[in-house]
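Table 4 source record.
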Amino acid sequence: MATPSSYDAGFYRDIMDGSYRSARAILEFLFGWHRPLSVVDFGCGVGTWLKAARELGVADTLGLDGDYVDRKLLQIPAECFRPTDLSKPVPALGRTYDLAVSLEVAEHLPDSRADGFVADVAAAADVVLFSAAIPGQGGNHHVNERFPSYWIPRFASHGFRCYDAVRPHFWGRPEIEVWYRQNVLVFTRALELPGARPEPASYDLVHPEYWASPRVIRRRARQARKSEWRARLGLAPRS
């Protein structure tokens, strides 16, 4: 996970409004298919997604994140937050939930933790709302940016099927943070939803707003220069 200094009060204040606005819209849409009575959030930050869930009628919530989260910024009751080091196996929750959420968290964990993290989330609920940063997306302490085709087989090994039920509805909605519009998927063992795709790679999409953003253009240019120099030195391309 990121170090505590990576997620100070300024970081959470910067993303809070957009995260909450996105959460209200996406959860309300999801609850049209699946209305949970309980929600657990792996990597909840200050709890904006759980705040939205509670406002939509879910009283039974639990948020898991590092002990460095500033309790004064929590958007949920303090008793609904459990300090948890997600870079290590999550201690047994002692129960299951109707919905597990993990959004833009898994990319902060090393590749060696990916299988175990998915197993922890899968053990918590039969329906999972999941997103993770894709290659080149960038952000604080992103150490394992991967396309959905990396995550889908890991959830499938626990009996989950992936549905692209959320992205088509919000793809063109600028009030929703673009990383959610690009990355949010539903994994479930319990529902049949619209948006099933034929193979994992067909879920690997890049939102135009990311592709055309100056930050991403600069990153692609740096990567191209690095690739050129590796070729000149006779080194193999990086995978």
